[in-house]
Automatic annotation (TrEMBL):
The lineage of its organism: Bacteria, Bacillati, Actinomycetota, Actinomycetes, Propionibacteriales. Gene3D superfamilies: PucR C-terminal helix-turn-helix domain. Coiled coil: none annotated. Residues 302-435 form the CdaR GGDEF-like domain. Signal peptide: none annotated. InterPro entries: CdaR-like_regulators, CdaR_GGDEF, PucR_C-HTH_dom, PucR_C-HTH_sf, PucR_dom. Belongs to the CdaR family. This is Purine catabolism regulator. Residues 488-545 form the PucR C-terminal helix-turn-helix domain. Residues 12-133 form the Purine catabolism PurC-like domain.
């Protein structure tokens, strides 16, 4: 059970003037339980009528003379256990009138459960206790509301004065004494007030990826225990649009109801700022996208103008680079259809991920969203410690661990570009690499234009029917869409891959050598003497690649 911090700890309540003479009989370890109210026990079956964090007080009369719901004498031990299970703060009883002493076994149980049992003096007036306790609670509640209102006013003022998300995060962290992250909907950091020790604690709890993404899918909106503390996540939403996430982390305590209320207020204010930032970003992205589209169409001007204008946008196009085209993969056959709005939200999340990763690089990697694809101009750089180049590192950073609702995507990489004049051709190369790579390798692929080989030529054939006709002419019945034809094509490809080494091809397909010899004879009856005619083998190899690319 979450222990609220806006209640009064029981040990503090015992210091009130009206609690003079109260003794702690058992359960000293539970004196830090929070008290939200005081209730008086008047009936034996009180357990069903109490609330969590109540302090229950009694004269002892219901315990001495009453019957419980089962028709038997009230069991003090069972009552203590029931009240503890229901989350009460403690039980106070007047000794000497109806109950003289408490059974040592009951006191031992209370100690075991850390459930405070208090001995109340006979002179203690319950009405005075109630008045003082609720007076103290009202004072504290008023302070909590004032703190939340003050935070809301401070955050609103920050937004009106042009503050950013980092300032909002810092203010929330200061007022609530928490570590704070503001992330995208898939967990990419947009702002933070999170000291390194707290960040390390989240990494140890497997809530932060090595790349810094917070695993929002593991937190959702339910509290996540981390050691003695807790992490909570609050969606930042405006106009029905999911914009971002506010993550708060306390390493030493569970977050209270007032903390959650303050997070909700902060999320509301943050939504105003995020909405404004996204509106500005949309305009900037359109402006940058229009410029880059003109560059790719060869109508942006000479290289000097393109380089200078790119510099005004914060882009450096002076060095060698690769054009990278990235597209979300189509829905898998077993996935249900989705609306256009959902598809667009996926694309926006995808483009945001690329933009955040690229803008975090130094120098900044130019990136734009072209409605159905994201294009980035990636400078050439040295391989990392793992041997991965700049493009591979970018792709890996965007992919992460595929959490946060991220979709699989395919990437195409152009040849090396050494001047702005080559960007138009390089863009076409990147798009061609994406298209062909997805057909040959399937989804979630990264394909370089220089690695396309013969597929590059096949993809350039403008009429797909002509390429298909060539494959049918060469392969004959092997071009049919049947299981037998597909099986023979596999054997044929295996033979070609191993330079017609029948023994090796048989071993790779787990066939007997004589079985493979029979298959070779059958293939030659269908195709002709491909084992002795190198030109025919070339035609067959190309035709097999046509079928692979066009299916």
């Amino acid at each position: 059970m979450i222990s609220p911090t806006y209640g009064v700890p029981l040990r503090d309540l015992l210091r009130l003037e009206g609690m003079t003479g109260v003794t702690v009989l058992a359960g000293h370890g539970g004196l830090d339980r929070m008290v939200l109210g005081v209730n008086v026990m008047e009936v034996p079956d009180i357990a069903d009528w109490v609330k969590p964090h109540d302090l229950l007080v009694t004269t002892g009369f219901p315990l001495a003379s009453g019957e419980d719901q089962r028709g038997g004498a009230v069991s003090f031990a069972r009552l203590v256990r029931d009240l503890h299970t229901r989350g009460l703060a403690g039980l106070g009883i007047k000794l000497g009138r109806y109950v003289d002493t408490l059974d040592p076994e009951v006191l031992a149980l209370a100690d075991e459960l850390d459930f405070p049992v208090l001995g109340l003096p006979m002179a203690l007036a319950f009405d005075e206790l109630l008045r003082q306790a609720y007076g103290r609670l009202n004072e504290l509640t008023s302070g909590v509301l004032e703190r939340i209102d003050a935070l809301h006013r401070a955050l609103t003022l920050l937004v009106l004065e042009g503050g950013d998300l980092d300032q909002i995060a810092a203010e929330v962290a200061r007022v609530l004494d928490l570590g704070v992250l503001v992330t995208s909907t898939d967990g990419r950091e947009r702002a933070a007030a999170l000291p390194d020790p707290l960040r390390h604690r989240l990494e140890q709890a497997d809530l932060l990826e090595p790349g810094g993404r917070f695993r929002v899918e593991r937190a959702s909106t339910r509290p996540v225990p981390v050691g003695d503390g807790e992490v909570r996540l609050q969606p930042i939403v405006a106009g029905g649009t999911d914009l971002a996430r506010l993550v708060c982390f306390s390493p030493h305590r569970a977050l209270s109801h007032d903390d959650v209320g303050a997070m909700e207020r902060a999320a509301t204010v943050a939504a105003l700022l995020v909405t404004r930032q996204e509106a500005v970003a949309a305009v900037e992205n359109k402006y940058r996208g229009d410029f880059l589209r003109d560059v790719f169409l060869g109508r942006a001007g000479d290289s000097t103008y393109v380089t200078e204008h790119a510099a005004s946008l914060g882009w450096d196009l002076g060095g060698p680079m690769h054009v990278v085209s990235a597209e979300l993969d189509p829905l898998a056959p077993d996935e249900p259809p989705v609306s256009g709005r959902v598809l667009r939200s996926w694309q926006e999340r995808f483009a945001t991920a690329w933009r955040q990763v690229c803008e975090g690089r130094r120098p900044v990697v130019p990136t734009v969203d072209f409605t159905a694809e994201v294009v980035a101009l990636v400078p050439v750089g040295e391989p990392g410690p793992d041997g991965a180049g700049p493009v591979d590192r970018l792709v890996s950073a965007v992919q992460g661990d595929r959490g946060g609702g991220r979709r699989p995507f395919s990437v195409g990489v152009s040849r090396l570009v050494t001047s702005p004049e080559q960007l138009a051709e390089a863009y076409l190369q990147a798009r061609r690499a994406t298209e062909v790579g997805r057909r040959v390798k399937g989804g979630s692929s990264t394909t370089r234009f220089d690695d396309l080989g013969v597929h590059r030529l096949i993809a350039l054939v403008p009429d797909p029917a002509e390429a298909r006709a060539f494959a049918v002419d060469v392969l004959g019945e092997l071009a049919q869409d049947t299981e037998d034809a597909a099986d023979l094509r596999t054997t044929l490809q295996m033979l070609l891959d191993h330079n017609l080494n029948v023994a090796e091809a048989a071993r790779r397909q787990f066939f007997h050598y004589n079985t493979m010899r029979y298959r070779v004879g059958k293939l030659e009856r269908i195709l002709g003497p491909f084992t002795t005619d190198p030109h025919l083998r070339l035609d067959i190899a190309v035709a097999l690649q046509v079928l692979q690319l066009r299916t």
